[in-house]
Design a protein that fits this description.
The protein has 74 residues and is mainly α. The protein is built from 3 helices and no strands.
Length: 74
């Protein structure tokens, strides 16, 4: 069990990814961090809005297909 935990830590925490991320945030001022966060949130909002619109279109298409199928069988 100890060996598995050690391997997991080595795998999950390998490299200096987390150190570089911490350095990036330490170098940012509060205003810079806020601007970065707002930018990421706007990008996420645009992405999810677009994906929602696509899903609504897919659902409408599927509903129309099922409706047409039922009408053809009647």
């Amino acid at each position: 069990m100890v060996e598995q935990i050690s391997r997991s830590i080595d795998f999950d925490c390998a490299g200096d990814y987390y150190e570089s991320e911490l350095k990036k945030f330490k170098q940012m001022t509060a205003d810079e961090y806020k601007a970065d966060l707002v930018q990421r949130l706007h990008r996420d909002l645009e992405y999810h809005d677009a994906e929602h619109r696509k899903e609504v279109e897919r659902a409408a298409s599927r509903t129309a297909w099922v409706k047409a199928l039922r009408e053809s069988l009647a």
